[in-house]
Amino acid sequence: MEDWLRSIQELVAISSINVLAALAIFMIGKWGARFFQHLSEKLMTRSKVEPTLVKFVGNLIYVALFTFVALAALGQIGIQTTSFIAVIGAAGLAVGLALQGSLSNFAAGVLLILFRPFKKGDYIESAGTAGTVDEIQIFTTMLVTPDNKLIIVPNSKIISDNIVNISAKATRRVDFVFGVSYADDIDRVKTVILQVLGEDRRIHQEPEVFVGVLALADSSVNLAVRVWVNEADYWPVFFDTNEKMKKRFDAEGITIPFPQRHIHLFAEKEIA
Fold it and tell me: What does the buried/exposed string (b/e) look like for 137-149 if buried means 16 or more CB atoms within 10 Å of the residue's CB?
């Protein structure tokens, strides 16, 4: 009888120690998981990582650490955790297969936020569409077209395609082609073109304005004109210069053969 009581006392003592140890592991581990969550969020915030990604990664770190702590606490009191780990692994695999497309969009969103090939307000071309970046989310990117249509593009399509960031640089080159008659003096035409361009303060003088003969076409001599402007002035300069050049050619008696072709090297959808 005494041996039986002694065995019970030893078992209770051991169980109590294990329970206390499990509670200690759980409490300290939970605090540590929260600490590493806050630490990772602070580091990412200092690195100017997107706030959405900061919160998501912080929560992901906490859940992963907390799961590890809970399994360690259960193992301390004698509960076999191998089956739990197997169930969690199988569930994770099933969820991963079911959400394969969503996970690829998530991974692409993380890359877009980390490497920042574009930011909110940039005009980009990618995934067969173009528009101004309105918002970069974890799974999708919102683009607004010039005619105010909202386009929601999966991040995986953007990251797997070429990205043309038209707003990335402070300046852009505007290209024109003006056709004049074979009867017109080329040097005089160049002088008139340079005069028109020189009157527009939005056009940079460095790099130097270029005017040269592009082609001797069937009914016209085509001159290529290349100027540099601030990115925001691209379209105003493009439209204004075409109008000014037509009016000045008319005033100077320079013949514009019909039909006049304006060759613009960028996609027309950017004007829409």
Answer: bbbbbbbebeeee
Please tell me the distance from the alpha carbon of residue 257 to that of residue 255, in angstroms, as a whole number. Answer: 6
Q: In this predicted model, which residue has the larger pLDDT, 43 or 86?
A: 43
- Please give the full DSSP string across 6-30, using - where no structure is assigned: HHHHHHHHHHHHHHHHHHHHHHHHH
- Quick check: 255 and 179 in contact, CB under 8 A? no
Cα dihedral: 40, 42, 45, 50 (round 10): 40
CA dist 120 and 143 (Å) reads 9
CB 142 within 8 A of CB 109: no
Neighbours of 246 (CB within 10 A): 14
Mean pLDDT within 68-75:
79
What is the model's pLDDT at position 97?
A: 52
This prediction's pTM: 0.62
How buried is residue 180: exposed, middle or buried, by Cβ count under 10 Å (0-12/13-18/19+)?
buried
Taking each helix axis as running N to C, give the angle between helix 100-115 and helix 82-98, from 0 to 180 degrees, rounded to the nearest 10. 80
Q: What is the SS3 assignment for 110?
A: helix
Helix/strand/coil percentages in the chain, nearest 5: 55, 20, 25
Q: Which residues of 92-115 are buried (b: 16+ CB within 10 A; e: fewer)?
A: eeeeeeeeeeeebbbebbbebbee
CA angle 163, 176, 173 (to 5 degrees): 45
pLDDT tens track for 170-205: 999 999 999 999 999 999 999 999 999 999 999 999
Domains of the chain: 2-98 (1.10.287.1260), 116-165 (2.30.30.60), 171-270 (3.30.70.100)
Helix (H) or strand (E) holding 82: helix 82-98
